[in-house]
């Protein structure tokens, strides 16, 4: 079961079994299948995570080593230099992944070069643990059965104990689900419109729009607010605003679509908004009946949608510095 994940703009392919190898972690919860309907994907169908890709890749590498190594080999795979170990430890803590005894423990006072030290300091802290609220006991939990004969007292007491245990388990499960949901909402996009792609001098980066708006009064915050965002896709008109002439021009550049289809679109003057809404039945009403041609048109429209959703915004900025800005905003 291979999963492709868009991690901050880098697509990482990994087996689900590797992601869920350590039970009880936030990473296991994220890819357990429990939250699949809550996780929005990018335009290419990849699960999107708004985290640093370098750190996430390191986590995957170590989980894979743990999964496929013997006890003797684990220390060899998990041993790393002081600089990377500090960053790795911080990333593992963030995803609540247990570190094995064989992992090299490095003091926080270890010497790091300037770039890695900054990266380490910028890594998000693990979610804060909220104080557990102890619910009031219900009447049945405080009942005593002294007045009953012993033949009834013992079974009733055991049943009461079992019910208390079941209630505690239910409450624990509820707290865990709430914790998982909060974590998923923090690292995943909340809607397709929340995913922003950047081309930073050739380096592709992806981030949540809500992350860019962490400081609403900043230039980034204002640029990507709800009022301004629809106009941030460059000078090219959005497909929804295409005229029927632009639709025809697009069709003429689709080599796999027959010319007679273009003529049908010319006659009906289909505009961009209508083009994106077309389905198989709609195309049949337009006069397209050949199954193969229908499939080609549907595929071309789908690819057009993907292209429009994933058109990156060009940033003329140093990729390393811009990446550091994104890491700061993710805190």
From TrEMBL:
Family matches, as Gene3D superfamilies: Potassium Channel Kv1.1, Chain A, Transcription Factor, Ets-1
Coiled coil residues, start to end: 156-183
Keywords, ordered alphabetically: Coiled coil
Domain SAM: 242-307
Domain of life: Eukaryota
One GO-annotated biological process of the protein: protein homooligomerization
SMART domains: SAM
Keyword flag Coiled coil: yes
Name of this protein: SAM domain-containing protein
Species name: Ditylum brightwellii
């Amino acid at each position: 079961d291979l999963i492709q994940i868009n991690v901050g703009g880098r697509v990482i392919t990994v087996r689900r079994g590797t992601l869920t190898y350590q039970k009880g972690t936030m990473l296991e919860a994220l890819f357990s299948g429990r939250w699949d309907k809550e996780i929005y994907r990018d335009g290419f169908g990849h699960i999107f995570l708004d985290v640093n890709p370098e750190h996430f890749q390191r986590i995957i590498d170590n989980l894979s080593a743990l999964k496929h190594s013997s006890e003797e080999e684990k220390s060899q795979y998990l041993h790393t230099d002081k600089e990377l170990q500090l960053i790795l430890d911080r990333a593992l803590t963030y995803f609540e992944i247990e570190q094995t005894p064989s992992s090299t423990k490095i003091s926080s006072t270890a010497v790091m070069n300037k770039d890695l030290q900054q990266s380490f300091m910028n890594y998000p802290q693990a979610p804060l643990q909220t104080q557990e609220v102890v619910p009031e006991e219900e009447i049945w939990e405080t009942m005593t059965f002294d007045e009953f004969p012993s033949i009834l007292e013992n079974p009733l007491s055991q049943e009461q104990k079992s019910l208390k245990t079941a209630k505690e388990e239910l409450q624990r499960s509820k707290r865990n689900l709430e914790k998982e949901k909060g974590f998923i909402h923090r690292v995943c996009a909340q809607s397709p419109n929340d995913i922003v792609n950047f081309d930073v001098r050739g380096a592709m980066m992806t981030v949540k729009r809500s992350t860019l708006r962490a400081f609403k009064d900043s230039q980034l915050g204002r640029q990507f607010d709800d009022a301004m965002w629809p106009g941030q896709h460059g000078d090219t008109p959005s497909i929804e605003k295409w005229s029927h002439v632009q639709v025809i021009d697009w069709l003429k550049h689709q080599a796999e679509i027959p010319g007679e289809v273009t003529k049908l679109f010319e006659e009906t003057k289909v505009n961009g908004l209508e083009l994106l809404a077309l389905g198989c039945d709609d195309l049949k009403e337009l006069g397209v009946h050949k199954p193969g041609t229908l499939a080609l048109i549907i595929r071309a429209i789908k690819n057009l949608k993907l292209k429009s959703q994933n058109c990156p915004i060009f940033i003329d900025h140093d990729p390393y510095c811009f990446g550091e800005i994104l890491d700061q905003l993710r805190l």
